[in-house]
Amino acid sequence: MKKIIAALALGILVTGSTFAQTSPQKEGKHRAEHRSERKDKVKKSPEDHAKLKTEKLSKQLDLNSSQTKRLMALNLKQAQEMQAMRAQHQKGDKRNPQHRKQMQAAHTRWNAELKDILTKKQYAQYEATREEQRAKHQQGREHRKGQRGEKLERQS
């Protein structure tokens, strides 16, 4: 009788410990699945890009109607310019250093014109928000970099 009770107790302990070891796994998508989803997305027109960016900045910085109109014109001009640069990039060499310089110059021009549209207080708020986003982006990159390092260690 003691042997049967001991065997049942041991069986229950072993079964209980195996259930304790399993943890729910995240249902993550494979990288290829994410890429295929991106390809299926509808490309937005420069007008759509400009409108979304203008609305976001208008809410974030509490712009008046005249500032919003000027910002919309600026964003539309930049979106059209970027679309033209991307089309040019698609045709040519993928590693053209001039392309990067052109994009940076366009962004610098946009930023200078934005500074003319906004008040000093609004521009300071915009810069603070941008710095927060940069820090968050950098933190995410470092986190992902750390995860890659852990995966490489596990594989070794």
From TrEMBL:
Disordered: annotated segments: 17-66, 79-113, 125-156
Give me the stretches of Basic and acidic residues compositional bias: 34-59, 128-156
Name the UniProt key words of this record, in alphabetical order: Signal
* Signal sequence annotation: 1-20
Designated name of the protein: DUF4890 domain-containing protein
